[in-house]
Amino acid sequence: MLEPVVKSESINQKRWKKFKSIKRGYYSFILIIGLYILSFLLPLIINSKALIVQYEGDYYFPAFKDVMPGINAYYDGTMFDQEDPGEANFRQLQKKWADSNNWVIMPIYPFNPFEDITNNENSMYEPPSTTHWFGTDNTGRDVFARMCYAFNISMSFAFVLTLLNYIIGISIGGAMGYFGGKFDLFFQRLIEIWSSLPLLFVVIIMSSILTPSFFLLIFIYTLVNWIGLTYYMRAEFYREKSKDYVSAAISMGQSDAKIIFKHILPNSLVPVITYFPFALVAGISVLVSLDFLGFGLPPPTPSWGQILYVGISNISKWWMVFAPVMAQFLTLLCIVFVGEAVREAFDPKIYSRLR
Fold this sequence. Notes:
The protein has 13 helices and three strands; from the N terminus they run H-H-E-E-H-H-E-H-H-H-H-H-H-H-H-H. It has helices spanning 11-21, 23-39, 62-67, 90-96, 143-179, 181-195, 199-209, 214-225, 227-241, 244-251, 256-293, 304-313, 318-345, and strands spanning 52-55, 58-60, 103-105. The chain starts with 10 loop residues before the first helix and ends in a 10-residue tail after the last helix.
């Protein structure tokens, strides 16, 4: 009787299995990814707009419009016979219609990160309570709502910034390492000049001259932050190009593009992948730092750095300091756990053959 053939695991399957075995990093990865995906649905969870309004037989879905970009989610109060002029206050309408045929279903946390003391229900520096879980800030905005929306903005900023840095760094660094010669010398001199510029001061100066926005900050920081990865990829491509499998590919007449993308690049990405989580940590820290210094995203954009600045300026309001510090600490801690797990899972010393 023939014995069943045992199929051997690929190197990537072994890496994933090793990563899952490191519980601290694996569960941190699940938590961060889950919260980040959930953060795109925050308008349905944390919002002052109602999920569903039933008024005089008609149905309205204000909060769902907030999720859809480009759709106006404004509802005038006069549509629902509201006494106060302006935008509909769905929390007040819910109380007003408690004993009528009309009704309102609110999100789990019925406050948004932008409403301030212009709303009569809000006041400045309210301490944490069952109504405002993390209190309110210097303009009466709900701190918990701002913290949650700031998580999405911080993670998105870090992801986009890191991806752009990787695309530029891998492209230029790989080309420098593979082609060498004058192309390599030109970019070496350019990088030497560019790297002599003080990174933070360049970002601050450009942010103070131009009106800062999410994509402008990413563009500015990408201009000055691609150098480190470029040098690293240059060294990796130089090392791989000198190996026998590349010489064999060249002798077989394969094109430069095929050699780069099919042979050298896959064998040069392992160290870069292990660095990715730590690059995210740097991206989040950069945005928090710029917002704290006042050169980051324009108000009233939710930001951990802006909340921390208000808290430091009013140190007696302890919740204004505690909330952003703990949010950033826990987020960065989870990402570092993921980074350590990825680094261990991709460690070449664990496996007998990586290539």
